[in-house]
Amino acid sequence: MRKRLVGLLVITPLLLSSQISTSHAATKAGAKCSKVGSKSVVGAKTFTCIKSGKMLVWDKGVNKATLIPKTREEKAFELVRAAYLASPAYKAPITYVVAEKSNQRFFELIKTGTEASAKFFQNYYKPQSELPLVMADGVDIEWMTSSMSKYGFEMDNWHRGAFKNGWGDVVTNSKSSILIYTGKPSTEKDIYAYGNLGFGAHEYVHIVAVGILGKQSKFGEVIPRWAYEGSASYFGNSIAELLPGKGELSNGPMQRKFKTFYKSLMYYDVREDVPILYSLSSQQVYDWFMLPEIDAGNCPSAYCYTAGQFLIEALVADYGIDTYISWWKASTNNPWRSAFEKTFGINFNQWLAEIGIPYAMEEAKKAYPEQSAHPDYKKKIEFTKS
Question: Would residue 64 count as lying in a domain?
């Protein structure tokens, strides 16, 4: 179900006045309000009532010029923003188990991002039992191994091999799930605030996915891997954009000025996750997504994370968050392609060829325009419905 206003609303003046105040002398940023989600228009700004701590207050307001999103990116982000602001305070049953030498700043950012993500997704999933978040310092692997074992988990060879490089992950067994992180040493001062807020939010999206889809759903067993990782990337980065304490937004190479932290991250994601999407033809990218191993988890970052994020953004913009999550739920009882068509009203292959890939290619090119484009990166894709 979409949560933003579209088109013209025909509504009685009495009902409208109960929802949006067009002239309220006491309305200003930080002033008290009475109902979460209510709006008040003052001059060129529309203020929204939000919960701050234990109080209900008016937010900073949004200029009229920015109220009507114009692009899919703007539409999707506005839906995320509205849903986050409308969500009440929520404390997930997370137990933090942190090594003594862990970087405190890194932990605080992960914790903040995790809890913001839990607040956002509470209407779709709430953990019903204790959710441990275990964080080591990137050095003491034995401490991490011991801490995980107390909750019935073992550290596999992949996690052992990558331990010192730093990672975050959701690990599941037949009974429960656990969040694990290795991070910066305690002496490290250069901590990227926005990226690590998004990191915490990202991994919690995986907790939501596993909670909805089932314990064995990380590698394409229920929804394809690009949707599993793309969802975590999109929602994690968007939620982080809403949070305070992101740091300073710096210019990129060649003094490229970014309007948002999300934009700056997309610049580096597109550049670093090879192959750069639009360096390939549109048909090549589409054909990659048709490979069974892409669905099952053998998915390069350019497809699972970067393209996946753009694909989720398009679905959220066009159909809304509720409908998008309903696809997840429908996929638990039906093959995900059948559930996709039933949920969105279009065959997946057709959507990918006509909407998904063209959108991902254009957004990648806008995010990082320095790469030479393949001459057929915008060419019409040939596909068959299946």
Answer: yes
Distances from the Cα of 283 to the Cαs of 106, 138, 277, in angstroms? 41, 42, 11
Expressed in angstroms, the distance from the first to the final Cα of the chain is 27
CA trace torsion 138, 298, 230, 117 (10° rounding): -40
Residue 1 lies in a domain: yes
Question: Is residue 9 in a domain?
Answer: yes
Left, alpha or beta for 345 (phi > 0: left; psi -120 to 50: alpha)? Answer: left
d(CA 281, CA 283): 5
| Phi/psi of residue 299, nearest 5 degrees | -125, 110
**DSSP code, position 187:** T
Q: What are phi and psi of 327, to 5 degrees?
A: -65, -40
Question: What's the CA gap between 210 and 203, in Å, rounded?
Answer: 11
CA distance 86 to 56: 12
**Do residues 77 and 238 touch, judged by C-beta distance below 8 A?**
yes
* DSSP state for residue 102 in the 8-state scheme: B
Give me the domain span that covers residue 7: 1-68
For residues 129 and 93, the answer to whether their CB atoms sit within 8 Å is yes
Between CA 90 and CA 96 the distance in angstroms is 16
Give per-residue pLDDT as tens, 99-154: 988 999 999 999 999 999 999 999 999 999 999 999 998 788 899 999 999 999 99
Q: Which two tokens stand for residue 338?
A: 């059948």
On whether the CB atoms of residues 359 and 311 are closer than 8 A, the answer is yes
Q: Which H helix or E strand runs over 327?
A: helix 321-331
Upstream peptide bond of 369 is cis (omega within 30 degrees of 0): no
In a domain? residue 340: no
- Nearest to 313, CA basis, from 69, 66, 80, 1: 80
307-362 pLDDT, tens digit each? 999 999 999 999 999 999 999 999 999 999 999 999 999 999 999 999 999 999 99
Number of domains in the chain: 1
| Token pair belonging to 98 | 């942190």
